[in-house]
Amino acid sequence: MTSDESDDLKAEIARRRPALVELRRHFHAHPERSFEEHETARTIAARLRASGLEVTEGVGGTGVVGLLRGTEAGAESTAAGRTLLVRADIDALPVEEANDVPYRSRAPGVMHACGHDGHTAIALTLAALLADRRDRLRGNIKFAFQPAEERVGGAAPMIRDGVMENPHVDAVIGLHLWSPTHVGEVIVQAGPFFASADMFRLTIRGRGGHGAMPHLNVDPLVAAAQIVVATQTLVSRETSPFHTAVVTFGEIHGGSASNIVADEVRLSGTIRAYDARDREHLSRRLGEVARGIATSLRAEAEYEVGPGCQACVNDAAITELVRRAAEATVGAERIPAEDGRQSVSDDMALFLDAAPGCYFLVGAGNPERDITAPHHSPRFDIDEESLPIGVEVLAHAALEYLA
Ligand SMILES: [Zn+2]
Ligand SMILES: [Zn+2]
């Protein structure tokens, strides 16, 4: 893209900015939880149709797919053109909004506390913008509006419903607005980017009885305590020092009174890793260590893990494409050089597994404007300057990919 074309694109996005912000605020005010995004999906479908895209609703539950066929000379049949998928997640969270803003959530106990309202508005604005430039697209752009990211449930049914075919998807891109990163910065890097996440459950069974006579009982609480401590070594002693992983116990329940030995203790937690072998090793070993300790203490451990979500792994070539797009948008100096990996997970991983692609982060925080609340917090918000940046990076990437 020449610098004149680049300036045109910036001007066009600036022109669309008020509508983009208004759209984001509309979705923010009307959040819907995972797989309940019916009104959201209706709005998306109507907007896509108005922009002239082919629309399929009910993909993977409440998902919506919009297909934009490019008409660049020679791509008329599109058989020769490639297809790029742009993914946006659309669901909200069971959080009561604590922000006092005009676009505050109108749904009690439901809030767009992760920025998916912004992702949806960005993708719709991009669809409209690229539809106006379809004569410059040699190939297709498929917009996948994915339900239920927060429950890690929406990507798999969309893929099962065929979103990667007809036409076949050659590459995927997507973004997450990111409040820990300052607005104006973009984080883009190849390789593992978001971690895998697998929830596990442990039940330790002993034999309950009087707290005064422990020798007549089998205490599952003592076994559980040792298991929590011992499994910390799975990362420190069994994972390469050049890799990283997380084992977190989030729950421990057991017992009913101070003078009673409990019958059983239930624990749950999450395993996170960036490498598929680490993921497999930790998932297996946590159960082995738990069972071994429980047995040695005369108790029994029952262990269940998953099904979770694999790591998001970015393809080198598509990541370079997105990096160039980000440089054209914010400048190379606003793309931090340090390791930008995140220990959270996202089922964008499944799209990235199905086709080479890139997931990247668009800074949306701004301490000067007091926009610092973490994702999923009742005070979460974004600096809306991040919205046109998101559109611009995706537009550059799409236009270059289908040039
Ligand atoms: Zn989230
Ligand atoms: Zn999110």
Structure commentary:
- The protein is of the alpha+beta class and 403 residues long.
- The chain has helices spanning 3-29, 38-50, 116-131, 155-160, 220-230, 233-238, 276-296, 316-330, 348-354, 386-401, and strands at residues 54-59, 63-69, 82-89, 139-146, 171-182, 186-187, 191-194, 196-205, 209-210, 245-254, 260-261, 264-273, 300-305, 312-314, 357-365.
- It has ten helices and 15 strands.
- The N and C termini lie close together (9 Å).
- Strands 1-2-4-3-5-15-6 form a seven-stranded mixed sheet. The chain has a four-stranded antiparallel sheet with strand order 10-12-8-13. It has a two-stranded antiparallel ribbon with strand order 7-14.
- The protein folds into two domains: 3-195 and 311-401, 3-Layer(aba) Sandwich (Aminopeptidase); 206-305, 2-Layer Sandwich (Alpha-Beta Plaits), CATH 3.30.70.
- The mean pLDDT is 96.
- The protein is elongated, with a radius of gyration of 24 Å.
- α1 (3-29) packs across α10, α3 (116-131) packs across α10 (386-401) and α8 crosses α10.
- The site of one zinc ion has 4 residues, from loops.
- One zinc ion is lined by residues 114, 150, 375-376.
